[in-house]
Amino acid sequence: MTNLLTHSAPPDNNPTLSPRCPNAPVPEALKPMLAALPQRRFFKLIGGGSLTEADKIASLAKAYALGGADCIDIAPNLAVIEAVDTALNTIPGPRPVLMISLPLDPDPHFRKIELAEPDCIRCGLCLPECPTEAIMLPDALNISQALCYGCGRCVPVCPTDALSLLPFQVDSQIEAALSHPAVQALEIHSHYCDPGMLATFLDRWQALLHDKLIALCFRPEAIPVPQLLDFCRTAQAQSALPILLQIDGAPMSGTEDPEASRPALEAAVWMAKQLASHGGNFPITISGGINTHTAQWLSETRYDFIAGVGMGTMARKAIWNLPKSTAAEAAKQIIGLFKTKSSGLR
Ligand code: SF4
Ligand code: SF4
After folding, report:
1. Exposed / middle / buried, residue 148 (Cβ in 10 Å: 0-12, 13-18, 19+)
2. Which pLDDT tens digit goes with each residue over 207-246?
3. pLDDT tens digit sequence for 176-206
4. Which residues line ligand 2 (CB under 6 A)?
5. What single-letter DSSP state applies at residue 70?
6. How far are the Cα atoms of 40, 103, 216, 233, 270 from residue 275, in angstroms, in the given order?
7. Distance (Å, whole) CA 156 – CA 158
8. Helix, strand, or coil (residue 127)
9. How many other CB atoms are found less than 10 A from the CB of residue 56?
10. pTM of the prediction?
């Protein structure tokens, strides 16, 4: 199985974790974001774990930062980190927390499309499916690898099976990404939620995790409950900061369908029940299918424990082609829905 660990550290069945000092002060830069969680006002722009078009991500990040986002979550790619950092330095007022996303194991957020050119008949059916306009058909089909984030929408429409998804390898970037001074948080994506693999990862990178907030992103279904709890507690053992859980409903499934975020909402309800009955206490956010309708669902009592959202596809799509002059205002309107309607202060 290809994963970060195979290239960065040998498997270790008995890793020794060194927890952050419980009395260490909370980094100033994290305080506004941490304050947004209990108020249920947390909003994160998901830039895309494998979206590496640096200038585009930097523009999105700036617009959502100006719009009031608490966190900007980007690929573990130095060019993207540098571009976003530079963009965020130009905004007045407090910066959102800069988070990088990493795959612990083969996770769908870290894929790229591959085209078998001889099989492509240039029918163009895949073009309108791509949310990032990565596919172009001037003469031959051209796919921007930097813009592709592996959502898979183009694959099933291809009549000749010319498109397939391959893992996006980030291994060579991880040390530089975690070492970058602008990176204040990391989100660890996992398909299998293996506590031993997580412990080995945290142990391998502990020197670079000091004072970084750790989030875990996973789909809880099909993972045994004791294993899930162990997975979360393994992360908590490494940090005196809260461990954020980002419960993923249907990865990269954003559409305008009012029900698109229902899998994430219901997965969060299920996870919260498991935590409540087993004594776990972690802030829960949701991702996967998040759109503007989600703000309305969050005002329902059933979901009143959810601390906020990470919005990817629909957040990017909303301002993808807007000029800079209007992008920030559009982002502000989207974030405003989550800062008011979904607020526990309603
Ligand atoms: S539709 Fe998704 S998988 Fe296909 S090229 Fe676009 S971003 Fe990549
Ligand atoms: S749908 Fe398939 S055959 Fe048609 S242009 Fe896209 S890759 Fe080529």
Report:
1. buried
2. 999 889 999 999 998 899 999 999 999 999 989 899 999 9
3. 999 999 999 999 999 999 999 999 999 999 9
4. 115, 120-126, 141, 157-158, 160, 162-163
5. S
6. 18, 24, 15, 11, 9
7. 6
8. helix
9. 21
10. 0.90
- Would you put residue 254 in left (φ > 0), alpha (ψ -120 to 50) or beta? beta
Q: Write out pLDDT tens, residues 294-314.
A: 999 999 999 999 999 999 999
CATH topology assigned to domain 111-167: Alpha-Beta Plaits (3.30.70)
| Fold topology of 4-9+30-109+170-340 | TIM Barrel (3.20.20)
**Single-letter residue type at 192:** Y
Residue 306 CA to residue 39 CA, distance in Å, equals: 10
Least confident of 40-49, 122-131, 276-285: 276-285
Q: What is the pLDDT of residues 123-141, one digit of tens each?
A: 999 999 999 999 999 888 9
- Which atom of ligand 1 is least distant from the CA of 144? 5
Determine the average pLDDT of the residues in 150-164: 97
Copy the structure tokens of residue 58: 């930097």
Q: Looking at ligand 1, which residue's alpha carbon is closest to its atom 4?
A: 154
Instruction: Find tokens 């959202």 and name the residue.
Output: 309
**Integer angstrom CA distances of residue 326 from 23, 60, 121, 343:** 44, 12, 39, 25
- Checking if the pLDDT of 15 tops 80, the result is no
CB of residue 150 inside a 6 A radius of ligand 1: yes
Give the β-pairing of 111-115 and 42-46.
unpaired
Any atom of ligand 1 within 6 Å of the Cβ of 158: no
Domain ranges of the chain: 4-9+30-109+170-340, 111-167
Cβ 246 vs Cβ 285: under 8 Å: yes
Q: Residues 6 or more apart from 97 whose CB is under 8 A from it?
A: 29, 30, 33, 70, 71, 72, 184, 185, 213
